[in-house]
Amino acid sequence: MLVLMISADSDQPLSAALEATVSRFAGMVRQVGWRHRLSDADVDEVMQEVRLRLWRSRGSSEQIATANASYVYRTAMSAAVDLLRRRRSRRADATISLDSQSDIVAECPAGPDTDLAASELNQQVAQAIETIPPTRRAVVRMHLAGYPREEIADLLGWSEAKTRNLLYRGLADLRARLAERGIGLDRMEARA
Amino acid sequence: MNEPRAAAACPSPEALAALARREGPESERLATLDHVMACPECGRDFELLRAIEKAGRKLGPKPHSARRWYIPLAVAASVLLAVVVGRQLITPAVPDVARGAPDAVTLLAPGGSVAAGQPITFIWHPVQNAVSYQLEVLAPDGSPALSRTTTDTVATIEPGALAGGNYRWWVRGTLRGAESVQSSMRPLAVHAP
Fold it and tell me: Is B30 in Cβ contact with A138 (below 8 Å)?
């Protein structure tokens, strides 16, 4: 990853106060994201872009001298969206040769039986989840991915009671669908 | 349990950002969330945006509840705008395209005001030798409200991307050889429905 030390090398360095705000913001992004394995490299790339944009803006905007947390937030959000756009563009361009696929298979640490069993269970669970009504399905997926109920409610702007209600109904739906397939929810939650 | 999905079915980065910011109709956000939780690549992308959104809310004033704070700035910006527009009206016309000058990209649409909740289409004149354009919409405090990069001379912003308020927008064209040209700033008032 390219690391550009703007603060050290530029004729127009970020002010110490602004750099402190950017660094503090980066720290909070990491703190919020660590539970769900947010990539440090992604955060670094976005924050480096934020520094670049703030630095470029200096000549054209006097506001930059007094940039606040809201400004840094908006710049970071915009930089992250641009980063994702570039990443998707690269993904679309990428091609995988047959040789590289054989390398991936060779490096897989699990045995074929384990893979097959996990794959079959995953497939059955995925199919069962698809049959849950849409309003409950996303909540169930978040729960199984390890998001606490408070975070689900916060993200969807729902009350705690509504979130709990839809989650329990969704899990009941899932339990019923899996029971029809001879799978217990406990086994699936243990895998999540 | 997560099975990778086809890239074509993945929501746009803007949709992921709208989900993180809790913007847009609930049905659309639920559909996006449903995909995100089942797609490892979108899950990673979303987690980055979600962490930035949450950090923004923790660190400073709530990013999307700061309109009251903008009001004095919006009034000041309106006064400034009146002075600038008045000055432009009495200034002799300049050529539409002049490479390197601040007005080298000519903005065509939208006019001065649009309705919130509707798609907003930004249009500008093509610039010779331009390989891409960057559209930037600035909030009253000068911070970027949104940014789009395109090779086209049209960019449509999805409904709800800009809340009601007074903005300014401009376009920068990148030419072959990394030289760039830019438009002047144009005001844009987004009226709440």
Answer: yes
φ and ψ at residue B66, rounded to 5 degrees: -100, 20
- Which helix (H) or strand (E) segment is B122 a member of? strand B120-124
Type of residue found at A105 = V
Q: Residue A157: is it exposed, middle or buried by C-beta count within 10 angstroms (0-12/13-18/19+)?
A: exposed
- Higher model confidence: residue B120 or residue B65? B120
Please give the single-letter amino acid code of residue A102: S
More confident residue, A107 or B171: B171
pLDDT tens, B19-34?
999 888 888 999 999 9
Place of tokens 């891409």: B132
pLDDT of amino acid A162? 92
Q: Is A75 on the interface with B (CB under 8 A)?
A: yes
Q: Which residues contact A190 (CB under 8 A, 6 or more apart)?
A: none
Whole-angstrom distance, CA of residue B77 vs CA of residue A43: 34
Q: Which residue has the higher pLDDT, B156 or A106?
A: B156
pTM confidence score: 0.55
Among residues A82, A32, A26, A29, which one has the least CA distance to residue A51?
A: A26
Chain B contact for A47 (CB, 8 A cutoff): no
Residue B12: other Cβ atoms inside 10 A: 14
Residue numbers of A between 10 and 39 with CB closer than 8 Å to B: 24-25, 28-33, 36-39
